[in-house]
Amino acid sequence: MPNKVNSVKGVFGKSLFLLAIFVVAATTSGCGSGPGGAANGAVFEKVSDTDRILSIEDVEAVGWKRGKEYDVEGLTGAVAAYLGFWTPPGLESLNYEIRVYPTHQAAVEQGTRFAEEATGESAVLDAEDAQWPIGVRDRRVIVGGGSRGSQNPRYGDYVILGNLVILCEGRTSEHSIERCAPFVTLLRGKGA
After folding, report:
1. How far is CA 2 from CA 5, 63, 107, in A?
2. How confident is the model at residue 147 (pLDDT cuts 50, 70, 90)?
3. What is the sign of the dihedral through the CA atoms of 58, 189, 153 and 94?
4. Per DSSP, which regions of 10-149 are E strands?
């Protein structure tokens, strides 16, 4: 009888051990994604070039809906800027701010500092303090509701795809990049 009990414990213990290894492997191999990975485990680059200059019409062609067009005076190097929304598969509609530059180099060299200021935990949410104050109100969200609500950044991070700077909605950088990945994939022409 002791041999059967030990045998059952051994099988149960091995099964539990294998299950634990599976869970650890699944959680570290791309089931959740971070700035360096997309949800399917593929590598996602926050800054990447394309083989062509993208227009706002290209963005609209993947299902993004234009809401507002901003005056780009003061947004160094930009030729246009828009606020709009897109609905990722299985999620609610999300805001994406699209800033259009003439080249990838201009987007990186001139657009990065403005994108960094408008995103993340330290985003500037007061027009008086922003380098480019246009649309600051749209870049914040009230959390908590009522008079006790607090202003938080709407965009946790940004992506530069070719000549576009895309501010991505999300609570954190990781959350924003995860939500941006399928959108960027569509813009690259690879489906969602």
Report:
1. 5, 65, 71
2. low
3. positive
4. 47-48, 65-70, 80-86, 94-100, 140-143
Amino acid found at 25:
A
Residue-wise pLDDT for 21-69, tens only, equals 332 233 223 333 333 444 445 578 999 999 899 999 999 999 999 999 9
Q: Taking the model in full, what pTM does it have?
A: 0.76
Cα–Cα dist 160/163, whole Å: 7
Sequence-distant (6+) residues with CB within 8 A of 102 are 53, 77, 79, 163
What are the residue ranges spanned by the domains of the chain? 1-31, 45-187
| Own/partner pairs, 77-85, CB within 8 angstroms, 24+ separation | 77/101, 77/102, 77/106, 77/107, 77/109, 77/110, 77/111, 78/110, 78/111, 78/165, 80/56, 81/134, 81/135, 82/56, 83/135, 83/138, 84/59
In this structure, are residues 120 and 139 in contact, taking their beta carbons and an 8 Å threshold?
no
Q: Nearest Cα to 70, choosing from 128, 133, 115, 14?
A: 133
Task: Using only the alpha carbons of the chain, give its radius of gyration.
Answer: 22
Q: b/e map of 96-130 (b: 16 or more CB within 10 Å)?
A: bbbbbbeebebbbebbeebbebbbbeebbbeeeeb
